[in-house]
Amino acid sequence: MKRNNTLLIKGMVCNRCIIVLSDELSKLGLNVSSISLGEVILKEGNKTPVDEQTLKVVLQKNGFDLLYDKTEQLISQIKLAVERGIKEQSETGDPVKFSKLISEELNRDYDSLSAIFSLTQGDTLEKYIIQKKIDEVKGLLVYTDKSLTDIANTLGYSSVAYLSRQLKKHTGFNFAYYKNIRQDKLTIIKNSLKLKGQDE
After folding, report:
1. Which CATH code is given to the segment(s) 2-68?
2. What are the sequence ranges of the domains in the chain?
């Protein structure tokens, strides 16, 4: 559950979870150094000691729980490493070798980590990484004005054509579908701002 001031937490699925959990930990008097999906790092020398039972009650009230099972913890750490790698690649455009990143972050052989992941998750780690990259592609298409070329270059795809095939294969939709969603969202926002202006 806790190692080196790190709490591993299951049930966190979105940014709202981060906000809720941050607020709850603050109410408990805990100083948080950083918080991301599945992981909370507490500041060194917290004045308030962590009462595990109280923490567990607060977490469960909000649909979260502490990770105790060592295999669950390991899988959570692998997924966090993948998310960090994709975020780093998306922000910097620098290529990330996921096998090296995961192995170094968890200080274990990648092949053994990949085998454990496959056994417990019912799918390969490689497929998980691909799916998370496709999720990032979808987000970039809908919430930014980046072109497919920019996204392919940023996330290390060999070509736009390959990324297009991957997108279609894993989502059933093409590039234009997600750009249309973006356009619809922008139209709604524009119309909303117009209405607001008229009301004023």
Report:
1. 3.30.70.100
2. 2-68, 71-182
- Tens digit of pLDDT at every position of the chain (200 positions): 445 577 888 887 777 888 888 888 888 888 888 888 788 888 876 656 667 788 888 888 888 888 777 888 889 889 989 999 999 998 888 889 999 999 999 999 999 999 989 988 889 999 999 999 999 999 999 988 888 899 999 998 989 999 999 999 999 999 989 989 988 888 888 888 777 666 55
Equal fold, 2-68 vs 71-182 = no
Query: Is residue 9 exposed (0-12), middle (13-18) or buried (19+ Cβ within 10 Å)?
Result: buried
First to last CA, the chain: 53
Determine phi and psi for 15, rounding to 5 degrees: -65, -30
- Say what the pTM is: 0.68
The Cα–Cα gap between 68 and 113 comes to: 18
Closest CA to 150 of 173, 179, 125, 170: 179
Domain 71-182 class in CATH: mainly alpha
- Rounded-to-integer distance, Cα 18 and Cα 35, Å: 7
